[in-house]
Specification:
The chain is α/β, with parallel strands linked by helices and 257 residues long. It has helices spanning 9-16, 20-27, 40-50, 68-74, 88-97, 139-149, 169-187, 201-210, and strands spanning 56-62, 77-85, 105-110, 122-127, 150-161, 214-219, 233-239.
């Protein structure tokens, strides 16, 4: 895709007509050579924003794919890092691409993000590019599972970016992609849930707060600002309740700039 080492149109078509799990199993060997892989610039910016919030002991990369976010966590967490994904193919690639000589140790777990098998095990959970695979109605249970996986006062962080405006070609590209996926899912089974415009930031923040998180938005360096002054990229940082059971309020409340 967009390069000689990426997947062919036929391979992408086969993937799109599979389930999400099977589709990613098929795509895994070439995933890092597609535009779907989180760019290094995003990873570096997130790492720089999270570093002052540490130190962190144990981290979880939710929907880790081939391990780009897991590698980020190895630079932030002192003891252990876990990557979880439901695609065996993606995990197999990640095992070969993310290695550490010592601490932190890296563990791989095959599991559904909507039914995480962890309880109070992590100080930091991150996720990159995964929310398009969840329908809006699935978010409350997803966020409740993340909160259960966090230790008191732990943080759940993920980047969000300002959507393109209608005058930008990317707006129509994403709109067309989502429309094609809706038609595909209406006509073909099993469904392949992958939507770029289904989730709204306001809905995400509301569901995080209902799950018990205190939420702040931190600007991501390196992405500039829109014409209205709002950051183009922001990091959602949701903090679990503190050890005494009180809400994990950020020091200055929600940061929007």
């Amino acid at each position: 895709m967009f390069g000689p080492e990426g997947p062919t149109c036929r391979e992408l078509a086969v993937q799109a007509l599979s389930s999400v799990e099977r589709g990613y199993d098929l795509l895994a060997p070439k995933f890092d050579r597609t535009p779907f892989r989180t760019p290094d610039g995003v990873l570096d910016s997130v790492a720089a924003t999270l570093a002052p919030l540490g130190p962190f002991t144990d981290g979880l990369d939710l929907c880790c794919g081939t391990g780009a976010g897991t590698r980020l966590l190895t630079g932030l967490c002192r003891r252990g890092v876990t990557g979880v994904d439901f695609s065996a193919g993606m995990l197999d690639v990640a095992r070969h691409r993310v290695r550490t000589a010592g601490a932190p140790r890296v563990t791989w777990v095959r599991a559904d993000a909507r039914a995480l098998p962890f309880a109070a095990a992590f100080d930091l959970v991150v996720s990159f590019g995964a929310f398009g695979h969840f329908l809006p109605g699935e978010l409350p249970d997803l966020f409740a599972g993340v909160r259960a996986a966090l230790r008191p006062g732990g943080r759940f962080a993920f980047p969000v970016f300002a959507p393109p405006r209608p005058g930008h070609p990317a707006f129509w590209l994403l709109l067309g992609f989502d429309a094609a996926m809706r038609v595909r899912n209406a006509l073909w089974r099993p469904p392949f849930v992958m939507y770029y415009r289904a989730l709204r930031l306001g809905t995400v923040l509301r569901d995080l707060e209902r799950a018990g998180f205190a939420v702040e938005l931190r600007p991501l360096p390196g992405f500039g600002r829109r014409a209205d002054g709002a950051p183009r990229g922001r990091l959602v940082v949701a903090r679990a309740p503190a050890p005494d059971g009180s809400p994990g309020q950020p020091a200055a409340g929600r940061v929007n700039s």
